[in-house]
């Protein structure tokens, strides 16, 4: 039994020696060591950005417009006042608007100054001579910038207009544009305002105007003075 075991160990050592010699003959130990110490593979090369070429092309115009000239925008003269055509078709035809003479306008303004001098002090007052855009067309009433900054709200609000009969008319005050928009048309139409009328606005509250009207034709609205 002992002899058989010894013979097995001798045979195993002999095979190990033979395998070692074969590996050395094939340089396998060196190859294995080289694999362990080989440098890391290089990172993947960064892809080059895609180049897009731009080309100029001729844009074809529609056959409906290709042979037509560019549109020409004209102004229409209404009683010696040039008013853009776009305004004529918006709210009201200004071709029938009667323009007051400079002399009549100056007389209305003078009467408005006299009216203002008789009003109670302590209330901010402004006077507006009615222009075509105030009484027709877009019905927009712009107000003096300084007056708005000192006396009117800094944000859009509802301004109430009280006429000399005590009737109230709410209007929309646009703070950024410094003027009265929605509601002003109703007031102007209800009081038959025309070009050249002098309208006095007395600020009796934060958002309330007392309004007096001096007619350009010589007549005056209401009691023509203070309460």
From TrEMBL:
Q: Where is this region: Disordered?
A: 1-23
| SMART domains reported for this sequence | B3
GO CC aspect terms: nucleus
State whether keyword Transcription regulation applies: yes
Question: What are this entry's molecular-function GO terms?
Answer: DNA binding
What Pfam families does the record tag this protein with? B3
SUPFAM superfamilies per record: DNA-binding pseudobarrel domain (SSF101936)
Q: Which superkingdom is the protein from?
A: Eukaryota
Among InterPro entries, the record links this protein to:
B3_DNA-bd, DNA-bd_pseudobarrel_sf, REM16-like
Where is the protein found, in the record's own terms?
Nucleus
Q: What is its main location?
A: nucleus
Q: Which residue range or ranges hold the TF-B3 domain?
A: 126-217
Compositionally biased residues, Basic and acidic residues: 7-23
Q: Which PROSITE patterns match?
A: B3 (PS50863)
Q: What keywords would UniProt list here?
A: DNA-binding, Nucleus, Transcription, Transcription regulation
Name of this protein = TF-B3 domain-containing protein
